[in-house]
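Morning!

This is the sequence you dropped in the shared folder:
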Amino acid sequence: MSSQIGPKEPAEQVPAWPGEEPLGTRAAARDPVADPGVPPHEYRVQDLDGRAAKRSERTVALVFTVSMAATVGFIAAFVAFPPDKIVYVWPLGRVSALNAGLGVTLGIALFCIGAGAVHWARTLMSDHELVQERHPVTARPEVRRRVLTDFGQGARESQLGRRKLIRNTMFGALVMVPLSGAVLLRDLGPLPEDKLRHTMWAKGKLLINENTKQPLRPADITVGSLAFARPEGLEEDDHDFQAAIAKAAVMLVRLEPGDIKDKRELDWSHEGIVAYSKICTHVGCPVSLYEQQTHHVLCPCHQSTFDLSDGARVIFGPAGHPLPQLNISVNKDGYLEARGDFAVPVGPAFWERG
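The structure's back. Tokens below.
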């Protein structure tokens, strides 16, 4: 199929300068500001060859199909790869398999939708040039009607109804890509359930010295001293060590029993040894500065101050509630042990906290 393009229309006559003859087509060619006119329309191969148009349609459909497959791959990677799996990818080196899988598949899915839309527009949609004169910014009723007419004409010229294969695969790709975002919502983290309310402390758990890694005896803690402990069975090689110690770390201080003002604090202590959570109730910083004359502990982050002789109540700073106390006793072997978990959640407040 061929198309005969007619000769270019002569350029519009331009008024001459004073004393010169009128500028015609030849003169206009020498005028650097003359209107060059509209070049002849060049038809695309798809406009002239139905088989080429069909190939372009199949290409666009293939790209949209690849986008759908990449979205499925995104979901499969999310399910298949554990968060701690590391793989070697040249030239990036050792990277997270989960992050690499999610990034590559989502990138392919989004790229293919864009590439398919661009190829569709450049090869199959209408290629007719439209010239529209400038008009005032305010739209008149006839302009609005024209816009709606042009929109309808554009919808017809896009051949969305005719090219059903493209339409169906495009809709499929557009519908499936948001699934990537829906899956990512699940990756905000596991549901907390009641994990924030419990730690590794339980009845009979020994208090292990953070420095010596040995069980603590009452004689190891003298009046005015400060010691740090972790629950028995928590090792630094454990994969969840950081999460567990962030809730279970405790500090032990020995007071004179007569200096303890709070009755429950005295009942939960052993010979003046009290155990409190080391995690500040403001934003979770480690409380570690102890003043033995006043029995106050200070959080170095925002200067929240707690009175360990009075139930660890807040006496200064932004912390909202006292440090949780751990109920302790001594077992038959003479080692300090917990009588149970903390009675209240440790660390900063959260909205589910009752």
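Headline: Residues 50-80 form the longest helix (31 residues).

More detail when I'm at my desk.
O.
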